[in-house]
Amino acid sequence: MMARRITVSIVVVSAVIVAVIYISGLFSGEDDGLRRSFSDPEAELKKLPVVQLVGATRKRGDEPRAVISAEIASRFKPISRKRASDKLEEGLARARAAVRRVASLRNKSVIIDSNHSISSSIYRNPNAFLQSYKEMERRLKVYVYEEGELPIVHDGPCKDIYTSEGRFIHEMEHGSHRFKTSRPEQAHLYFMPFSVTWMVKYLYSPNTYNLTPLLEFVSDYVKLISTKHPFWNRTQGADHFMLSCHDWGPRASEGNARLYSTSIRVLCNANSSEGFNPQKDVSLPEIRLYGGYVDPKLISPPPPTAQRPHLAFFAGGLHGPVRPVLLHHWKGRDPDLHIYEYLPKNLNYYDYMLKSKFCLCPSGYEVASPRIVEAIYAECIPVILSDHYILPFSDVLRWEAFSLQVNVSEIARLKEILIGVSEDKVLRLKEGLRGIRKHFVLNQPAERFDMFHMILHSVWLRRLNLRF
Ligand SMILES: *[C@@H]1O[C@H](CO)[C@@H](O)[C@H](O)[C@H]1NC(C)=O
Ligand SMILES: *[C@@H]1O[C@H](CO)[C@@H](O)[C@H](O)[C@H]1NC(C)=O
Ligand SMILES: *[C@@H]1O[C@H](CO)[C@@H](O)[C@H](O)[C@H]1NC(C)=O
Ligand SMILES: *[C@@H]1O[C@H](CO)[C@@H](O)[C@H](O)[C@H]1NC(C)=O
Ligand SMILES: *[C@@H]1O[C@H](CO)[C@@H](O)[C@H](O)[C@H]1NC(C)=O
């Protein structure tokens, strides 16, 4: 009975997916004149909507749906019909057609290699995902703008809470060259490698809450690249992307109205109530790496059948709108729920995660929480307590297969909900966690299907849905 209630609260996750469905809906309804200019692959395309990429989803949950409107559709209207890069567009059309062709196969699982397969219990559509991933490997070319100087451009933090920002920028700048091109006219996507975290460090005066210097920097950067190169103006920035894990990433992107409304923004702070648009923006996992490395304790979690003595664990400050509610109801209230504001010095945070069945991941000052990825590493089932959070890679992954989502309004019933999850389901969720762990790992150099590639794939998916 409890399990059913949980299912209801998990529905939020699928709302995100509904949003993805709408992307395709928008684009398939549009600019027919243009699309006719592509020959066979595009004709093929029309037969199968990208809807199938995300599989059958429950269309409950209204929030992302409300974000989507004709207004957004108009942002993607063709800007110019005379692109020198018709060949690029044809390649993209072929990629779309290939994805759509396999999307209808609906295999229960798809083999990646002798050691890996992906299954429909965890992925929305294994065939479509694997195909779009392979199309990315086969075709994707990203141009990284050379404009701008250190320390704010071409670098970012690779330690602590904003690790994912710096590691992605570094990977694009210095890592695998497979996806990079030095010839911008051959690129599908254009990356603006500035770091909002470093803007905060170097441009912001502490305690002023004056973000103008950040907005000015972003505005100047876009002005610079759009004056020096033809690419930005060609699409009004629609094939350009930025990435930031800082809480103020979304605010900084307001420095240019087109960047905000049209470009792909890859953000940890993916708050759909604050302009994050799951149709075009990408939710970036937040990863906290003290010293730049995963804590050794989290490298090899205990076997799935090992006893976890604690039902649930959380430790963290009273930040943001959700945690006060959680702490109010549960701090020091119940011996099964280990809920701390500050963890006593003699206790170890990661040991706690490894000994707990559920790890609570409430929003803080922003929607994302590094706890989610830590919980994935610890194979402690993440319990997402967050309003308006668009979860990372949710266009590909079924979050309900490896996490719980509990509505903030149900926090008072949290214990009841958690003890209502059957042992069977706990084992399945843990299996799910083991399955998706690789997507949340940062490797140096990057490896197939790891976090770098999953981020890039999310951006690629949005580019695939784009028409000029
Ligand atoms: C979460 O709770 C609020 C307030 O009760 C409600 O309006 C909302 O629909 C709920 N969301 C889901 C997905 O159940
Ligand atoms: C999917 O299933 C079809 C039909 O059973 C099979 O021919 C194909 O090889 C499968 N695809 C993959 C990628 O496993
Ligand atoms: C599969 O795993 C084995 C043992 O770990 C390894 O030697 C082999 O290279 C792996 N194969 C692939 C395709 O990754
Ligand atoms: C792009 O448009 C802006 C504003 O209209 C203009 O100032 C700029 O010169 C244009 N860039 C190029 C390369 O033509
Ligand atoms: C998300 O945005 C809404 C609307 O601005 C805000 O009320 C809420 O506090 C934000 N969530 C977090 C965790 O910051």
Automatic annotation (TrEMBL):
Family: Belongs to the glycosyltransferase 47 family.
Highest taxon above the source species: Eukaryota
Bilayer topology: Single-pass type II membrane protein
PANTHER family named in the record: EXOSTOSIN HEPARAN SULFATE GLYCOSYLTRANSFERASE -RELATED, OS04G0109900 PROTEIN
Single GO term (MF): glycosyltransferase activity
InterPro entries (UniProt xref): Exostosin (IPR004263), Exostosin_GT47 (IPR040911)
Organism: Salvia splendens (Scarlet sage)
Keywords, in A-Z order: Glycosyltransferase, Golgi apparatus, Membrane, Signal-anchor, Transferase, Transmembrane, Transmembrane helix
Transmembrane segments: 6-27
Subcellular location: Golgi apparatus membrane
GO cellular component: Golgi membrane
Keyword Translocase in annotation: no
Record-annotated Exostosin GT47 domain positions: 137-418
Short name of any one Pfam family annotated for the protein: Exostosin_GT47
Name recorded for this polypeptide: Exostosin GT47 domain-containing protein
